[in-house]
Amino acid sequence: MNFLDLTKSELEQLCIENGQPKFKALQLTKWVHKKGVQDFSKMTDLQSSFRDYLSRKLKVYIPKIIQSTKSADGSEKWLFNLKSGEVVESVIIPEGGRITACVSSQVGCAVDCSFCATGQQGFSRNLSLGEMLGQVWAMNYLSNVGRISNIVLMGMGEPLLNYSNLTEFLKFLLMDEAYGLSRRKVTVSTSGIVPFIDRLRIDCPVSLAVSLHAANNELRDKLVPINRKYPLEQLMRACRDYQDSAPRKFITFEVVLLDGINDSLNDALAISRLIKDYGINAKFNLIPYNAFNGGIFKKPAFERIKGFQMKLQESGYVTTVRKTRGDDVEGACGQLSGIVNNRISRVGSREKTEIAGLF
User: What pLDDT score does 347 carry?
Assistant: First the structure.
């Protein structure tokens, strides 16, 4: 059994069943996540009989790194080979004193946004808790860039469609005995799965980034098909409710700018009005489109990107243009395509039904 797949409560139960006090679960967590130790025999504050049991029954399994490609800008794209034979990608982005890890939550993606490389592959399955934690563990302890300071779930997949594993994953990121990150430094990016935005607000409110891209349902239906199920009216209300629980009391809205599609000054003004109409405290992150093989869009000219940014700033919003990082190794936003085997048959009937019901 993979130690990383055990939730906090399951670790506590494991200790109790072996005659250990419940707090030993935190010591185990600290050894593995905070100190990066994989060998149970080296966990000297545990009883030797318990260490022997752990060594026989558990393994700290880290997905195999099959490729690490470094960009000219210092970003690194890692390819992880899972036990199933499938591959997912993560990206490390160092900038100043901050080291951000971009983590995947699914093999492929079911949302199928028209501008995203991952969506073109289709959906295979959700990642387990251990497969998500394994990415973070590896980037912390097998890279030479230093300790990860920020986590963004913006890799392959829609995090909120892997909700139960996501919330357990977030607990370890925030736990002092594990990675000890603040809620401000952990961001969940979603295409707008409204029921789970509402649940996350209650269960584990971290920073929220919403892929917006358009101010009207007609265009957003085409760019982000999940909008047909959860249209802008529902999404905006969910964002307005979430902001009071958000660590910084605002929502980040992401807009992938597509040449001639959603990059005009009128588009910027319409987005500004939409947000104001719903009384949402917002920050904008503009993302110039990153081309990929099979993509149908083009990146806007610099002048149009700058004009879009200025229009939002004139409306009173902090607006940044995301620096394209790692595009020379296909590691920039929207390019996390991986080498995914489209094994749709691997998806269990329960999981397949749950996903289908959300569309």
Answer: 44
